[in-house]
Amino acid sequence: MSRRLVNITLDNLDDLPHRCRGCVFWELDPVSRDRALESGDSGLEKEAWISSTLLEWGSCGKLVYVDNVPAGFVLYAPPLYVPRSVAFPTSPVSADAVLLMTAHILPEFSGGGLGRMLVQGVAKDLTRRAVKAIEAFGDLKGAEEGGGCMVPADYLLSVGFKTIRPHHRYPRLRLELKSALSWREDVEVALERLLGSMSPEGALRPV
Fold first, then answer.
1. What's a Gene Ontology MF term here (predicted)?
2. What is the pTM of this model?
């Protein structure tokens, strides 16, 4: 069984689950989201958000494939690009962090470690870009709010996030990329395998 992690682009955006392809829970403020849903333009709004974020900031999502079948995805961006991020009781996201917006694994692929693989991919990308931390709004009670666009808090805790702003429903959690040595080791090993002897300094970067 082969696994492959790639950046989300306009070319593979349609590989997102159908429900998620047209979801703009995070990408638009609540009023604009309702307007887009009523007009049937949410898919176009999603595409426009991906396009502008890629152009202005860079990679903002990962897709994981199992035997070339789309199995899950994750989206992330600085809070400036995520209007919904200010709508939570535990806002705002810290200025030095990127927001993990949403992550989803298709039910038939759950339990195989793909969720951790996605978060590792995000950590690797952001470490290369000198980002200090990842933050996320977890959901303690379920996925009904926003149609399943929230990441369960228990999952975030299981992959290394720590609660920094408690709440009975939507705690804000944080993963420090500097101090998460296991993540950094994963990054260095991956870079070393990728670059080999052409860039030995990649494996010597201080932690």
1. transferase activity
2. 0.83
